[in-house]
Amino acid sequence: MDTDTAQEVDAPASGHALKRVLLKLSGEVFGGGKIGIDPDVVNGIAKQVAEAVAEGVEVAIVVGGGNFFRGAELSQRGMDRSRADYIGMLGTVMNCLALQDFCEKQGIETRVQSAITMGQVAEPYIPRRAIRHLEKGRVVIFGAGAGMPYFSTDTVSAQRALEIGADAVLMSKSGVDGVYSADPRTDPTARKFDEITFDDALRLGLKVVDAAAFALCMENKLPMIVFGMEGEGNIARVLRGEKIGTLVHAA
Q1: pTM exceeds 0.85
Q2: Residue 166 and residue 170: Cα distance in Å, rounded?
Q3: What is the per-residue pLDDT for 46?
Q4: DSSP H or E run through 170
């Protein structure tokens, strides 16, 4: 994918194009592959976010909660799905508070906004307030998903990005560095795409990101970059707009 192609599809190709971004972080990463939070991992993420903010990028973040609970998995073990999803949402808030702490240790002002009201630890989710924080150079971390069951944090990431007027959704993944024709962990013939349209991703049934998130971005022509968390400085690189992972764009 060259710069000219990226410009044709109105997608970010360099740090100059990325003014405001929505970064989705996988909850599993926060635990370093284990249950709970690994402070060293979260501190490393915060350092990379701080680098981008120092260069003028406005950063909003949605954090998953898979290092604590996954609602879908809990429901498969017999728990009511709605209640299980709410438990998962609370797990995301714990991750948000940890990331906030380490971001502020890097000297970056940070606000957590929660879709479930919990006034002692987070602001309520108010889009215009979030935009104002971003304009002031603060990092905004969105917790508790959509505040409703049956919505994945991938879908919430697309929705929040649209509400705050982000230039792109940056979707981090664990164990995979982009969009592939099949799961590269189980299929050695899987081919990585440098770029692909949302239409093609949905038609091929590619599941690296929820179909609802793909559809929401496609309808609103919001570019998405799917990239791997593994690799030195990948978060800082994608926040700057470097070419990394797979660009998914409208036709």
Answers
A1: yes
A2: 10
A3: 97
A4: strand 168-173
